[in-house]
Amino acid sequence: MYQENESVNILVLGTSQDGGYPQAGCREKCCFEAWNDHKLKRYKSSLAILLGNDCWLIDMTPDFSYQLRMIEARLNGKPNICGIFISHAHIGHYMGLIQLGLEVMNTKKIPVYVMGKMKLFLENNAPFTQLIELDNIKLRPMEGGETILLCDNLSITPFLVPHRNEFSETIGITVKSSEKSLLYIPDIDSWNSWDMDINELIQRNNFALLDGTFYNDTELPGRNVQDVPHPYINDSLNKFSLLDEMDREKVYFTHLNHTNPVIKKSSLERSEVCDNSCHIAEDGMIFTL
Fold first, then answer.
1. SS3 call for 74
2. What strand order describes the sheet that includes 110-114?
3. What is the pLDDT of residues 111-163, one digit of tens each?
4. I want to staple 260 with a disulfide (CB 3.0 to 4.6 A). Which of 16, 95, 175, 256 is the partner?
5. What domain count does the chain have?
6. What distance in Å separates the CA atoms of residue 130 and residue 136, rounded to the nearest whole number?
7. Are 232 and 217 in contact (CB under 8 A)?
8. What is the domain-level CATH number for residue 125?
9. Which residues of 10-27 are buried (b: 16+ CB within 10 A; e: fewer)?
10. Is 287 contained in some domain?
11. How far apart are CA 24 and CA 62, in angstroms?
């Protein structure tokens, strides 16, 4: 049972892109300090919705063992994992599910909410097939635009966004309490290729954690950045400049690539974000709904 008027807290479990920060194999300047200072590490992007001792996860990353400890520290005890929502089939967003299996936590029928193609992907690929066969997880289908009630006055609504859908569709999520709502879109190809107006969505929500993978198109020398499309932060700032300051202040960029200069607090690029009344999300942040 929850206490009357108990607040919903959303704990930011990670803010890096699928490769993490620092990223495996990177010995460049962007990751050098983070290899030598563990405090600079960023876990892969994920959220935990906390109400009392109950916990719902948005994405389950390869860093889950550490992220579970973050939840335990926040709750001062073991969480009751009531459900996991998977946004899409890129490695940073679902690979943590294997921690629920026989070799590790050996959980019992944890609800895992998935869209249709994501459901088929998990049902037809090991080791996830074993999680299903051994009842470690129970797949729960969801549809874009369908509101899922988690408990009284707390709901999640998934919605489709355009992204590289090699194995599954991709969703963003709105988390809504009786008081406030949070918009979460860690991955999208671009704001302009979507049939929704991101500025309108920012206005309609109290908080917006949005794709900030790259600052601009110069971060991947030797690679075609079009192979991994994301909206650039500098373009997003220009688009969000049409908003009032109070709406721009709702924006927190997340899912940061290891090359993204906004990771460094002293960078000019981070100052540019702040000067435009937006923010950089940090691991361990709390948003209260």
1. helix
2. 137-141, 110-114, 80-85, 54-58, 46-51, 9-14, 286-288
3. 999 999 999 999 999 999 999 999 999 999 999 999 999 998 999 999 999 98
4. 256
5. 1
6. 8
7. yes
8. 3.60.15.10
9. bbbbbbbbbbbbbbeebe
10. no
11. 13
